[in-house]
Structure formats: structure tokens, C-alpha cells
Amino acid sequence: MLKTMNINDYREDFAAWCKDCVMITDKESGARVPFALNAPQRRVAGILERQRREGRPIRLIMLKARQWGGSTLVQIYMAWMQLVRHTGWNSVICSHVKDASAIIRGMYSDLLRFYPDGMKTDGKPRDWAFAPYEKSPNINYIAARDCRVAIGSSFAPNAVRGGNYQMAHLSEVAFWGDGEQDAAEMIVRSVAGSITLAPETLVVMESTADGEDNYFHTEWERAVRGESDKEAVFVPWYEIEIYRKPLDEAGLRRLMTEMDDYERQLLKREGVTAEAVAWYHDKRREYTRHEQMMAEYPSTPDEAFLRSGGEALDPAWFF
Question: Which domains does the chain have, with CATH numbers?
């Protein structure tokens, strides 16, 4: 028997809403599957939810390893706020380039296309799809929830400046303003500066690292010291479930004889399994220097910042 859906069932259960109401494209098979949160997504969603339940403005700065779905999580969390918890709750997505922002918003478009009919409590079916807002190419409107979703880029922040937004997703901030601190700070303020300090307003700043000489690193350090409005969250590579290699007894013995000192130290860390180290050990063969591997797959924030810098961005890394 099909489950009867009620919007009120999901007002306090983001994870259940994801699983029951959100379809995403599986990276390996290409099939449409329910959005079941993976381990790092569950952890970060828990932080967002803790802040929300405490009645605070939701503020996060997130340093990412690649391809665990951090941008996906943030965007779908914002969609939950708009589709379930609030009406008239506007959002803005701003990345280093407009195409990346459009890709992030595209996840929202897919969500709406496959959204269950039982959750469409008001209006006609077309009211639950994106429509251009006042003919703007940068702003879409969901009539059933009276909310807007705008996109911009660090190269054209004025396209979304001055809007009435309650949420902002700032993506790949380390690469804004070509890494120049004052330029990046000005862009952030122009996009998110008008968001009030009210409960359930949201600002998430996230990025892979690009060295230490940029605005994102400065803001990360402020958050770590407790001087920022944002809570600092790092997702290391070994927390990401796809980075595992199954081991039989012979494979485990071989790993133990082939590991170097760094990998032995990894294995001593809480939460790092032999299967994760086996994956890391094999993956390192693709790189001529250990530092290159650490830049791509950092185990600590220090590794991420010290070993990164000057790399081209591949949009596939974001999600």
C-alpha cells in the first residue's frame, strides 16, 4: 500500500523527507534513486539541524574533500526549508562561475520534476515547477510556495545584489575574486550581506581548498578560533563511503607489509578502517608525489590548505 504523504510529517524530519520525497541521479548507475543521506551528509545535516532547533540563524563554513555530495546536501536542505517549512522564503546560489551555480540549481529543478504529487498541497501542478521571475534569466519562482531561487557568480555578483533573501549557498569561495581577499569579501557581502540574523535564515560558505592566501582560508581560521558567526566543518576523504577497497585476509596481510609511515598513522585514527587505507594506498599510485595525493584527498584541514593551490576546478568535484 502506498504511503499517504502529509507535509506536516516532514516538518521536523529532514532525512525522512529526503528519502521519501527526493529523487537524485545515482553516480554509478545513472538511475533515479531516493536521496538517502550518506555518512558525511548525515553529519553535516545534523549540524544544520542542531543550529535550527536551537532557534539560531544557521551559519556554516565547510571545507570539503571531493565528491561526497556537500553541495547537493546544502541545496536540498534549502529546498526543504522552502518546500516544507516556509513560504515566501527566498534563496540565492552563488558560485565561482555562473555555470556552476546553474548546475547546483539544476538539482533543485530535478527535485521538483519528480516531487511526489501527495506533497503538492496547494495550487496546480505547474505551480510546483520553476518559472522565470519577472522575465529574469537569473531568478526562478515557485508559485505554490511563493519563493524565489536566484543564481549568480563571483564574476557578476550584482545580478543578485539587494534581493530579499533568507538563505544563501556560497560555493567554491576559495576561488572567488581570483583568491584576492578584499575582492572576495566584497563579493560575499554583496550577495549575502542583507540576510538577517533571524532563526532559520541560512548562510553556508563551502569550498575545496586553494592554498592559504585567500579569503576562504581567512574565514576558516576565524571560524576555528570561534571568532566568526559560522561553525567550521571539515569532511576528510576517509569519511566518504565510496573510498573503500574490500579486503580479504591475503589483501590485509599485503597492505600491512606495503604501508608507509603516513598510512600507518592514518590507520591509528578513529574512524579510519583498513579498507579505507587500502583504497588510499592504491589511489596514491596515480600520483608522482605524496603531496599531490594529500591535496586531492586531505585527511586534515592543514593538509587541505597547505597542499592545495593553483589547481583548475572540475565541476564534477562539487557534488
Answer: 12-235 (3.40.50.300), 244-307 (no CATH)
